[in-house]
Amino acid sequence: MEIYPKELREHPKPLIGIIGNNDIEEVFQHTEFHKLNFLHLKEIDELPLPKRKNILPSDNYHLPGLIKAKWLKKHRDYIPSVLINFFSANDLYNNEKRITDEITKIKRKTKTKSRMYKFVIVFIQEINNTLTNETKEEKLNQIKKRIEIDSKQGNLFLFSLKESSLSSQKLFTIISDLSERFYREEGRRVKKNYSDIYSKKTQHDLFTRGNFKCGFYSEARGDYKNALKYFNRSYKNLLEIPKKGFGLLELRMIGFVLCFKMISLQLSLKNIGEAIFIFKQYTNNFKSYIQRSRKGELENLIISWYQYKLFAEMLEKIPKTSLSKKTNYWESIGFYYHAAANYSLERKKSSKLLIQKYQKELSNCNLDSFDKNNHIIEFFFNIKNSIFLCQIIWRVRNKEENKIELKSPFKLNTSNTDFSSDYESENDNNNLESNSNRIININNDNNNKKNDNNKKNNNDKVNNNENDDDNDDDSNAEDNNKNNPNSNLVLIKENGKKKKKKRQTVSLRRRSDKSSKIYNSTQDLFCFLYSEQQFNHSKEIIDLFTRAYKCYSQESISSERLIHSISTRIAIAYFEQNEFQFAKLLFTLISKHFRKQKWWKELLKILIYSLECGNQLDDYNYFTNCALELCIPKIGLPLESRIVIQDKLFKMISESKEKNYFKPPIKFPMTKDFPLYDLIDCTIQFTESTVYFNTPIIFKFSLISHLPKAISLDQIQILFNLPEYDRVIMKSPINIPNKEKGNQNKEELQSKEYIITKSPFYFPDLLLHPNKLTVFTFQCIASSAKKIVAKAVRVICGNEESGLCFEWLKFPKSINYPIYLKTFPSRPTSQVLQLPANITIDIESPQPAFINEYFPILIKLNSNQDHIKNGNFLIYFKNHEKGEIYHQNTKDLLSKKKNKIFFKEIHPYNTINQVLFIKSPITGSFELLIYVIYEHKLGYSQISKTEYNIKFSKPFLKQYVYHSLSKDLSKDETTVLLDKQFFFLNLGLISKTPIPININQIDLILFDNIGKIFSKSFNPKGGVQKLRSNNNDNKFNKHNVNENGNEIENGNGNEIEIEIENENANENENNDEIDDEDNDDDNHKKSISIKQGERCEVFFLINPYKVFNPDDNKFKNSKILPNEKEKNVYQTSKKVSIGDIKIQMIRTNPIKFYNYYTEYWKKKKFAFELTLKTSPVEFVRRKVTMDINYPSNGVVGHQITCTYYLHNHSDRLQKIWLKVEQSEFFLYSGFNYSELVLLPRAIRKLIYIFIPKKCGKLPFPKIQFFLKESSQLLKESRKNYHIFVSPSKK
Amino acid sequence: MKIVSIAILGKKNNPLYVYVSNEENKRKFEYIIHTSLDFFEEKVPLISPLSKKSTQNQNDMYLGHLFPTEDYKVYGYLTNTNYKLVCIIDDSEIKEQEMKTLLNNLHTILVDTICNPFYITDEPITSKTFHLKILDLIGKK
Lengths: 1290, 141
Prior knowledge:
The complex is a heterodimer.
Chain A lengths: L5 H4 L5 E5 L17 E5 L27 H9 L4 E7 L2 H4 L1 H15 L7 E8 L7 H15 L6 E7 L3 H34 L6 H17 L3 H17 L7 H21 L3 H22 L3 H21 L15 H25 L1 H6 L11 H13 L4 H8 L19 H4 L23 H22 L8 H6 L6 E6 L2 E6 L11 H21 L2 H18 L5 H17 L3 H18 L2 H17 L3 H11 L8 H20 L21 E7 L9 E10 L5 E10 L2 H4 L7 E2 L10 H6 L1 E2 L6 E8 L4 E9 L8 E10 L4 E7 L28 E6 L4 E2 L4 E9 L8 E7 L5 E4 L5 E2 L5 E4 L6 E10 L4 E13 L2 E15 L3 E8 L11 E2 L5 E9 L5 E3 L1 E6 L4 E10 L6 E3 L25 E6 L6 H9 L12 E3 L4 E10 L8 H5 L6 H9 L2 E2 L2 E8 L11 H6 L2 E8 L3 E4 L3 E6 L3 E3 L4 E9 L5 E7 L5 E3 L4 E6 L4 E10 L3 E4 L3 E5 ...
Chain B lengths: L2 E7 L5 E6 L5 H22 L14 E7 L3 E7 L5 E7 L5 H19 L13 H10 L4
Antiparallel strand pairs in B: 1-2, 1-5, 3-4, 4-5
Helix pairs in contact in B: 2-3
């Protein structure tokens, strides 16, 4: 948008002229002053004045050019509306005469006949000025009256620096009022002049200009609505201009200026719809002319491109809130970018043709001085437009730099070119371009043209006087004062010296001057083409399409395909810019869309581009894919082209193989996204719909190639839904007939027979001719009962050794390909097979079943005859909603869906044992239906259907375990003294079921090295029961160890088994049991029944004798070996569990053991088994222990030796006090009190001799031992010691 | 009114027949025809009997002006069997009725062609008779 001329792009601001250098900052401090433009004039004489008018009103008068190019710039930059001059307020009194003279001069100078400049004389009042404002105002009024200043023309203003802000505001109001008045008067004057002099009906060109000027004046004073009105009138007048009088390009450019003036005004007023309407109107108005002429096409394309782009940019700059939410196509910004991009494409094409055409002439043309960076549209506005606007803008610019130096690009060497007829004009009346006959003639070094030009300039003089000097034709001050308009010599002020130089003039030519026309058209064309050559078309196209793409993506209108279309154009532009990577990426994306939509023609174009991209990028895979797809007939490429592509493809592959770009063979697995199925077409047909087991399946496989040339077939592999068929063994030869009539290879092919042993099938010497059907017959043996479907076909063409190898993997099912035929119909449900073998089923399980425990079931399948292998044996469960079934080995839960177990085969005379576990969380009956089914492809056979009922119940026996330290011990005793103290472990059993419970065996399994079980008793109903141990050594009441203190071990280590006898009701039975107790085999019969509500207790008498030493090696091997963490606990605390109690009920009916799962059933010889853990007991070890040894009887008067053993278990010395109590039954000697020392880990033996004095059962005298440090009494294991004393023999 | 292109698109939006007056600009017209499908899809809900926005007569298959391009105007016609008829004309003013009649006639020609037992549904129309009828319709015969 920046290239659009500033004077057209922006709204004009009122121009204010400041005379002299008295620019005081305080004066212009008001913020509104930025709405004005300022021009500094050194003197009042620099004020540009209008030329003398020489108006010749005539109905036949027409303008040579519609609007002068410099007119806009002149009024924006050179012709002020208001002049400001500054004086000091002191001069009002001191130098009044000078002031009046100056004001008079200004008044006179500004009041010309045709233009009434406005002026403001500002008197600056200093801050320290003592005079009052009122006095000065009076003085100013006096001067006004004296000089007769009309307030409409000018004003005097007293600017007080004291109140600068207020004064500045007032001054702005005065200036803006005067400025507005100036532009209004100018507008009226122009309007009046035109309407008075010219005819509205015929002289449309003049009214176009007049209304344009009025519009400009209105716009300058900020009256946009009025400005719109005038511009609209001007535009309407423009359309009325006969097309013969003016060049189409000129009309179009002026229309363009007017149109965009109106658009910018409408957009400023936020009338977007109106702005779009104006643009549409403009494009429609000129479209028909352009289409009709078909000449100057490139110019039109450039202008069209530019105007669409410019309009899109203007719309884009509007805040989005101003745009309506739901846009139609015309309101879409993307549409304008899209259109601009399309014109840009056309422009590129057209300019390429022209450049090619004039390549030779263009190369001879010297264009060094031409600004290469000049943009093409600037060229239009600066050069091309200037032709029609009768002025040269660049000259105005150069003048700003005090130079008149034309940078003319026109240094033409060839003057006799005749191409302008092609480009610019012909003798066709309809050719509106031919009317562009106002030509710049520049007197350059071309001497051949000089004379001619001079003559023509003389002819133009009259026209210049007549035409250029219309009512407001201005020239700049320099031109007015120093140049003779009729001379082609110009005086240039340079370095303060006046020099006479040949002037480079701009003059207008008559239309009849064909030679000049050709000459200048040629120059224009070269500059034009040169600019086009320099212009990066692709970049512009990509940019515009990208902008359009973004806009469409953001807008609400549906544009999916539109975006694809734009993407295609972008991709092509990238391709043309040799950016193949981007192009490839885009083409790949777009091609998917067109392929999906089956727009083959579009796809064809894209593929051709893609092919080249692959070639340029050396992407062989991509190239091959594109080439192969192009070979598909439906894409629409002619056969010849397809042959060429195939040849090129094969050539490329062989070349790339030589260069070792990739290792042969190339295989192209054709996925679903890359549909090359049509290149090779294949079908599979099964000859029969149903075949039987072990019978041959015959199917035919047909193949047809659509490639343009023949290719060799290398391999075929057919993939079935059942993988065993993929590599099926072929037993029969394969015939490969070719059905094509007239085929020379027919006989040869038919005579060949291939014996194929496994897939893939190799055909090294078979050619696949294009569009000729080749049929293969295959045969395999049906070995499955399921239906067979050919899921995919892999066809490999080419020879792997040569590297020409293409692989097609087709998925017929996924694309509804006709390779689908099942060999078997759906299995008849009623068909029952006769099994070749007799299979029996046997189910076993123990009883009872308890809730939340795994309950095993054994299922056995026995085959007594043949080996059955071609089918599946199925065990199928039903109705197990209440419980869960677990697999034997894995303990995986068999869910309701996965309630089947398969066996593939049963060997003859063998048994399949399958164990399942059933677990139920609730009590109740559990009905299990077990089907054993033999499933075969031809049907199925139900071997058995068994209903199995399992009752799950709660555990029937309530148990509790407690221990009492000793019957005789006081309640305070909470610890068990190791070695020396017995304690009881009690087991209580209460029956909860009405059925008598027969308990066969109760075991206490002590942990290693803890102690010894001496006895146990059984007490149903809470009464005292007689209890016997299996081991005679451990009988109840045998509470002593042997004399040496050694442990008595039974045969099972620490485990003892007891037989239980009941003294209550079943005496007879019990007697029988006692009688039979010697028979070890009948142990299970010696059970005792506990009725409902009965309670029985078992007592275990235990003597712990071992010291807990976790580091002991024996202990390490123990089952209760504590882990590392627990070790510390054992060392510090001696409260431990002593073992487990195991209650067992032996199975009444012993089950048979089976070979298959013997190990499991061996363990399960008990029908009920329960293990209880005993509560922990705290064991204590004393530091010093005492023991006593004495005889059981004595004689009066005879010595009795009593030995005391004191044992120090600690690692310290222990001091012991000894106290002997007096006794009336014995005499003894020794100390009553004594102190002993016991060495660490030592045993001391004390022997006392007593002499009984009396007979009878006498208590021993008490000897008490105390630990000295703690005064603790050492207790004996027995409380009272008695001896039988017999009288002495006389 | 100058008809520059006529196209018939199938049920699956695939092109069945494309006539272009100027072969040089064939690609350009094909892009326009392809883009017109967007506007068919946009307008179809509006003519649906279930649509509340439906303003057109439900039996009217003429969709009118679909969209403009910088140089052309595109008109559409959707048959009850979901065939799409596209007509591209130059950017001159035309009467709606004129275009409607033209597309109705085109529809009649299409129906005749489809009724031909040798025509395979949804395959490109290659019938010469059809082409001649089209040329006759647009006045180029």
